[in-house]
Amino acid sequence: MTTTQTPSIAVIICSTRQPRVCPQIASFVTSTLQTLPSLTSTTATATLSTIDLATWNLPMFNEPTIPSQIKDPSAYAQPHTRAWSVEISKHQAFIFVLPQYNWGYPAVLKNALDYLFHEWAGKPAMVVSYGGHGGGKAAGQLKQVLQGLRMRVLDNMPALTFPGHDAVVAATKGEDIGIGEGVWDGERDGIRRAGEELLGLLAEAEAEVAVGSMSKKGAKGQ
Ligand SMILES: Cc1cc2nc3c(=O)[nH]c(=O)nc-3n(C[C@H](O)[C@H](O)[C@H](O)COP(=O)(O)O)c2cc1C
What we know:
By secondary structure, this protein is α/β, with parallel strands linked by helices. 42% of the residues lie in helices and 14% in strands.
């Protein structure tokens, strides 16, 4: 199906602990990207919205069928899977904002990914990790899984390093870690560059969808 509306990019908040720092960081990523003309001008090529995995509160994956075998979302057994499918289908690209937990990414994110397949496939993805050393190990593992879901994952993965041990302690308590007051000012350019690359991949993906839709229409007319 051709997208007639402006494509939507969803920023996914991938930590669900209480308390947590992830919403602060997702908001920093969003406000940084909102300085890109392609996302703010009247001729914006995409819009940004947020998905909070805590709000979704999905149970542990409990579908009887492998999601890659499901082409029609009405075939999902669970109502929460059908609702999650509708949500993910609304967006044409994703930005995953995630912490590193024990050298990996949060289990709640793997659970949310495993529920679906075709809803993710073919869509561009940007990964922004954070941690004491930037969370690069979590980002690398997530990239591999997203590629398994056939997503178009950016090689450019901004990694945000907490400015010292006190910041890790404050972040863990969900306290204000001073973003916008000096913390990560220098990281904004890297996030913007990755955002531009994501918009490039999104334009390519949308063009492919449009060509596919036109050739289907052409085939029907023959
Ligand atoms: C279970 C757990 C494991 C963690 N493992 C790591 C780690 O491997 N590397 C790291 O830099 N920080 C680690 N941390 C510290 C997190 O970077 C910090 O707690 C951060 O606030 C977590 O993000 P959140 O508040 O959004 O959940 C860990 C924190 C938790 C709760």
